[in-house]
Structure formats: C-alpha cells, structure tokens
C-alpha cells in the first residue's frame, strides 16, 4: 500500500469552471494521501475557507501557504496586508490545515516546509535600482495588481525581509531532507519561460536562491507563474503546479491529466498495513 503527497496551486476558484475542476480532479488515490496547496486559491475569505474545507475533508492532511491573491483587498475592505494574511491563516488553522505558522510535518522521512516569502524586486537587471526597474516595467505596460491591492497597505519589501529572517530561523532547526513549498519560486531559473522578464520583479527574491541546497530539499513546489513545468537545479527538482486561469488551463491541463501529473505527485511512500 502507498500514500502520496500531492501538490496544486493557483486554483483561482472564482474563475469560471475552476471550482468544478477542483471538485472533479483533486481527490486522493488513498485515504492516507496528503495535499499541498501552494497559494492563490481566491481573493475573498469565504471562497478560501470553502475550498480548504472541501480539500481537508478529502485528504488526510492539507498543507497550505497563501499567495499574493489571498492578500488582495480594496480600500473599503476591513482587512488589509498583514491583517488579511493573519485572517487567512487563522481560517486555515480552524479547519485543521497546516500553514507557514505551524510546526512542520514529516512525510516519508521528509520535512514538508510551507513558506511565505513574498518578493523584494531583486530579480531585476543588475544595472538598475528597484525604483528604475519598476518604472521601466510600467513604461512597458507591465504592472501587477499587487501594486494596487497590496502595496498601498503594506511595505512588501520590508515584510519580505521579515519573512526571510523568520523562515531561516525555522529552517535552521530542520535536520531531515525537505520538501520546500512556496507560492513564489525560490530560484531565478524559474523565470526562463516567462515571456516578460519584468514579471520577476514581483516573483521572488535573490535571497532564496541557495535555499534548496542549503536546506537539503529534494523538491521545491511553487506556483504564481501559471507556467506548469518541472526542472532541476543542482539536483533539486522544482515543480510549478498551477491550475491557472481558463485560457491557460485549457492548454496546460489536459496533457497533465492524461499523464496523471495534476495534482502533481511530489512524494510516494510505501506503507505497511
């Protein structure tokens, strides 16, 4: 008998048809299977809670880290920035879902580490300052909604630095091999298939580049880019496991379903009954 650690991200359940696909395809092969959800379920708390509640009812354990969409808010909303993050985490914990604020669980001899690192605009042309790089991106018409729905309420770069320090302290205590889970990619090589390299300004931080080796990762699971891919950097597998928006998943999902690669099988363990 086996049990599997599966992974998905970027479910965007408010997009037409996406929740139907979640209900149909995100199911365990065994009652003892676990599931990673690497961010961007939805922008509103009720949708996040409903989705996590459904998945937690199906899997033995769900491990979840929020993405940028969970942080989106409007001026009229009650919660912004860190307060929104804390509310999302609290909702997940009430359901029994493990988050970046919980003890790291073990699966098949690996510590599964949900991270929440954000970004600091350091994935840019090294000849440019962050301000110049952001201005150049805007001149090309490249702007993320983050600048309107997160940045007005929170200093994202400062928050990123705090999250990096927090994560390093916790990772330093881990002795086992790891599965690192983050919404944003940890290595810049993930940007190689992105059409507009400026998107990197909102996609990661140079400070995590060596984390997979330093913390003995066998696999890094991430999302955010909506470019499902698997590649290796210094013998560590990096897997982007997003569902994405309808126009994207109509192309990317069918071949993955056919090959049984979505949800993505991260790790399989033989279990003695």
Characterization of the model:
With 273 residues, the chain is of the alpha/beta class. It has a single domain, classed as Metallo-dependent phosphatases (Purple Acid Phosphatase, chain A, domain 2, 4-Layer Sandwich). The protein is 30% helix and 18% strand. The chain has eight helices and ten strands. The chain has a six-stranded mixed beta sheet. Strands 3-2-1-10 form a four-stranded mixed beta sheet, with helices on one face. Strand 8 and strand 9 form a beta hairpin. Helix 2 packs parallel to helix 3. The longest helix is centred in the middle third of the chain and has 16 residues. The radius of gyration is 18 Å and the shape is globular. The mean pLDDT is 97.
Put simply, the count of helices is 8
Number of E-type strands: 10
Straight-line N-to-C gap: 7 Å
State the major sheet: 6 strands, mixed
Q: Architecture, CATH level 2?
A: 4-Layer Sandwich
Number of domains: 1
- Helix amount: 25-40%
Task: Look at the structure and give the CATH class.
Answer: Alpha Beta
Q: Name the strands of the widest sheet in spatial order.
A: 4-5-6-7-9-8
CATH superfamily: Metallo-dependent phosphatases
Structural class: alpha/beta
Shape: globular
CATH topology: Purple Acid Phosphatase, chain A, domain 2
- The poorly predicted ranges are none
Can you lay out the helices and strands and say which pair or pack?
Layout: E1 2-8, H1 18-25, E2 34-37, H2 45-58, E3 61-64, H3 81-94, E4 106-107, E5 110-114, H4 130-139, H5 146-149, H6 156-171, E6 178-181, H7 211-214, E7 217-222, E8 229-233, E9 236-240, H8 246-258, E10 264-270
Parallel strand pairs: 1-2, 2-3, 5-6, 6-7, 7-9
Antiparallel strand pairs: 1-10, 4-5, 8-9
Helix pairs in contact: 2-3
């Amino acid at each position: 008998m086996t049990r599997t650690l599966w992974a998905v991200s970027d479910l965007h359940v408010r997009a037409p048809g996406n929740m139907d696909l979640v209900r149909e395809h995100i199911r365990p092969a065994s009652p003892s299977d676990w599931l990673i959800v690497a961010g961007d379920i939805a922008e509103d708390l009720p949708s996040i809670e409903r989705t996590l509640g459904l998945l937690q009812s199906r899997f033995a354990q769900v491990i979840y880290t929020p993405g940028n969409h969970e942080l989106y808010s409007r001026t009229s909303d009650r919660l912004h920035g860190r307060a929104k993050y804390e509310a999302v985490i609290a909702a997940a914990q009430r359901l029994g879902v493990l988050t970046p604020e919980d003890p790291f669980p073990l699966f098949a001899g690996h510590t599964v580490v949900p991270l929440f690192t954000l970004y600091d605009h350091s994935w840019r042309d090294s000849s440019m300052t962050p301000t110049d790089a952001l201005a150049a991106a805007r001149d090309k018409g490249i702007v993320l909604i983050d600048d309107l729905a997160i940045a007005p309420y929170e200093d994202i770069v400062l928050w990123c630095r705090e999250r990096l320090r927090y994560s390093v302290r916790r990772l330093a205590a881990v002795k086992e091999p790891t599965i690192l889970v983050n919404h944003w990619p940890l290595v810049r090589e993930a940007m190689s298939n992105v059409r507009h390299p400026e998107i990197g300004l909102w996609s990661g931080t140079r400070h995590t580049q060596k984390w997979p080796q330093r913390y003995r990762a066998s696999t890094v699971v991430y999302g955010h880019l909506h470019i499902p891919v698997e590649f290796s950097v210094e013998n560590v597998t990096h897997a982007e496991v997003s569902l994405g928006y309808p126009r994207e998943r109509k192309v990317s999902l069918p071949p993955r379903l056919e090959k049984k690669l979505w949800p993505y099988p991260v790790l399989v363990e033989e279990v003695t009954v």
